[in-house]
């Protein structure tokens, strides 16, 4: 009987002494959500709701294009872009630590600028993360935008390459061309045209 009481008391003490400690992912998620919240309060940015209903991105127009209409979800587009995030949103892109070492805080995870004059990347909009596809569906050919994508409209709670889970993404986009998706009804094949 005493051994049963001892086991129950030990289990109770063990469970009550365990408190939830903050993990790296918890802190990273909170820091990224806080940075996105700051951008939502910046008057230079405009809110664009996702058609998926998952949330919204923030957009700042750098240059307005002269294209007629935004692309469809099934269209392919040519885009010049640079995607980045920061390891620490409270610090500048580069800074010196307390030992004098230069820290590169801004992480460019992908860019067409680093591809030695290769043409713009071609994407089918529906194959992109929700935040990227949301932006493209509101752009016109020639538009240059900076967009901020909250973690849940980017890669979510899963890491992707060098991008940690729960990361707010920033992209500078220049939409250069669109290709409309057409289906040949006779052969039921898909092709793209300008």
Short note summarizing the structure:
With about 190 residues, the protein is α+β, with helices and mostly antiparallel strands.
How would you characterize the largest beta sheet?
8 strands, antiparallel
Shape: globular
Please trace the helix and strand order, writing H or E for each element. HHEEEEEEEHEEE
Percent of residues in helices comes to: 10-25%
Instruction: Return residue spans where pLDDT drops below 50 for at least 5 consecutive residues.
Output: 9-18, 182-194
Put simply, the count of helices is 3
First CA to last CA: what distance? 82 Å
Q: Which value, in Å, is the CA radius of gyration?
A: 23 Å
Structural class: alpha+beta
Tell me the name of the CATH class of the domain at 22-82 and 120-193. Answer: Alpha Beta
How many extended strands?
Answer: 10
CATH topology of the domain at 22-82 and 120-193: Chitinase A, domain 3
Which CATH architecture of the domain at 22-82 and 120-193 would you pick?
Roll
Beta-strand proportion: 25-35%
Average pLDDT taken over every residue: 83
Q: Would you kindly provide a written description of the structure presented here, covering whatever features stand out?
A:
- The strands form 2 sheets. Strands 1, 2, 3, 6, 7, 8, 9 and 10 form an 8-stranded antiparallel sheet that branches. A two-stranded antiparallel sheet has the order 4-5.
- It has a domain at 22-82 and 120-193: Roll (Chitinase A, domain 3).
- The longest helix is centred in the N-terminal third of the chain and has 17 residues, at 24-40.
- The protein has helices at residues 2-17, 24-40, 130-136; strands spanning 46-49, 56-63, 76-86, 94-96, 102-104, 106-111, 121-124, 144-149, 169-184, 189-193.
- A hairpin with a 4-residue loop joins strand 9 (169-184) and strand 10.
- The protein is built from 3 helices and 10 strands.
- The chain is of the alpha+beta class and 194 residues long.
- The protein is globular.
- The N and C termini lie far apart (82 Å).
């Amino acid at each position: 009987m005493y051994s049963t009481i001892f086991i129950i008391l030990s289990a109770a003490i063990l469970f009550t002494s365990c408190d939830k400690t903050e993990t790296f992912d918890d802190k990273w998620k909170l820091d990224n959500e806080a940075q996105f919240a700051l951008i939502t309060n910046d008057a230079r940015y405009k809110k664009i709701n996702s058609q998926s209903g998952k949330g919204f991105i923030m957009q700042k127009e750098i240059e307005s294009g002269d294209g007629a209409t935004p692309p469809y979800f099934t269209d392919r587009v040519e885009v010049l872009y640079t995607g980045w995030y920061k390891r620490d949103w409270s610090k500048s892109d580069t800074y010196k630590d307390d030992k004098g070492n230069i820290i590169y805080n801004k992480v460019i995870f992908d860019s067409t600028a680093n591809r030695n004059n290769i043409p713009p990347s071609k994407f089918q909009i529906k194959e992109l993360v929700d935040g990227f596809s949301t932006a493209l569906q509101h752009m016109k050919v020639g538009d240059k935008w900076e967009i901020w994508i909250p973690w849940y409209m980017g890669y979510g709670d899963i890491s992707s390459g060098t991008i940690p889970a729960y990361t707010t993404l920033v992209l500078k986009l220049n939409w250069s061309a669109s290709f409309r998706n057409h289906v040949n009804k006779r052969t039921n094949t898909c092709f793209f045209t300008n």
